[in-house]
Design a protein that fits this description.
The chain is of the alpha/beta class. It has 2 domains: about 120 residues, Rossmann fold (3-Layer(aba) Sandwich); about 180 residues, Rossmann fold, CATH 3.40.50.720. The chain has 12 helices and 12 strands. The strands form 2 sheets. Strands 8-7-6-9-10-11-12 form a 7-stranded parallel sheet, with helices on both faces. It is globular and about 70 Å long. It starts with a strand and ends in a 10-residue tail after the last helix. The structure holds (2R)-2,3-dihydroxypropanoic acid. (2R)-2,3-dihydroxypropanoic acid binds next to loops.
Length: about 325
């Protein structure tokens, strides 16, 4: 029997690409250049599985392409707001993602951004790099203490919980969270976490607010001008979720006018073309979407996709089926 045809849209860790080559008739993307809409349509017509990632918009047009051959889309990423899930469902195309394996690394980056923002690390590093540091000073670059402060989490899924553990057990932080669905009580107890009834209550109480909700239409600009105005002037906003959860114009205004003290961002509206206003600010830590970017995690994400498509081609239910 011939091997299933699999198309991978970007470069993956070598170890996983080697596995793919051994198991499938695979088309890799050695140049790592994102595929165009036409190339993605052609891929849908010529492969049994498409393996895209969070930078590939898999729209209804692409999914509905005539003579589609693809039966499974194995997304390399836990977030799948790049895929039109309703179109996939309607067309009976199975979609999988890569949960669990990136939880700790993404929470680490959220914690890194929190610390960078609190302690004014971007501004401090810039001072050194620009050769403007003239020596230690008692009032130089005073930031905010992190230990013992209150962290408010918007969303309380795996990554939020991992961050809460690091913050609570490592930094003695008090944990607040806001989530519409019922949380796991054992974790709430372990972290002595408090659930806020409203987003507004969390925003006005927390010293640090970290976003951990999915992207997409339901959360677009959840953090807008009105909500930013509820935060403490000494507060910091951290985003490792999806860029469009924050109205970036409103955040730039808030950072410029001092409604909040700082922000740490790993994701951006319209990334990689971030709002140029961010580049003019000293009180924002900017990272290029590296939440899951460790060798171990990216390899594990690839292996997760491998397991999902292997299950599918063996006629079994993939572990990480989304639709
Ligand atoms: C994801 O998986 O959704 C991240 O944004 C990239 O690792």
């Amino acid at each position: 029997m011939s091997k299933p045809k699999v198309i991978v849209t970007r470069r993956w860790p070598v170890e996983v690409e080697t596995q793919l080559k051994a198991l499938y008739d695979v088309q890799l993307n050695e140049s790592d250049t994102p595929m165009s809409e036409d190339e993605l349509k052609l891929a849908m017509q010529s492969a049994d599985a498409l393996l895209p990632t969070v930078t590939d918009p898999i729209t209804a047009d692409i999914i509905n392409v005539e003579n589609r051959r693809v039966k499974i889309i194995g997304n390399f990423g836990v977030g799948y707001n790049n895929i039109d899930i309703n179109a996939a469902k309607e067309q009976g195309v199975l979609v999988t993602n890569t949960p669990h394996v990136l939880t700790d690394c993404t929470a680490d980056i959220a914690m890194l951004l929190l610390l960078m923002s609190a302690r004014r690390a971007p501004e401090a590093e810039r001072m050194v790099l620009n050769k403007q540091w003239t020596g230690w000073g008692p009032t130089q670059l005073l930031g905010q203490k992190v230990t013992g402060k209150t962290l408010g989490l918007i969303g309380f899924g795996r990554i939020a919980q991992a961050m809460a553990r690091k913050a609570h057990h490592g930094f003695g932080m008090k944990i607040l969270f806001y989530v519409p669905s019922a949380p796991d009580q054992a974790i709430v107890d372990e972290l002595k976490a408090e659930r806020c009834d409203t987003l507004e209550a969390l925003l006005s109480e927390a010293h640090f607010v970290s976003l951990h909700c999915p992207g997409g239409a339901a959360t677009k600009h959840l953090i807008n001008e009105d909500r930013l105005r509820l935060m403490r002037p000494s507060a910091h906003l951290i985003n490792t979720a999806r860029g469009d959860v924050i109205d970036s114009d409103a955040l730039i205004k808030a950072l410029k006018e001092g409604w909040i003290a700082g922000a740490g961002l790993d994701v951006f509206e319209g990334e990689p073309n971030l709002n140029p206003g961010f580049l003019t600010l000293n009180n924002v830590a900017l990272l290029p979407h590296i939440g899951s970017a460790s060798e171990e995690t990216r390899t594990a994400m690839g292996n997760r996709v491998l397991n999902n498509i292997a299950a599918f081609f063996a006629g079994n239910e993939p572990d990480d089926r989304v639709v």
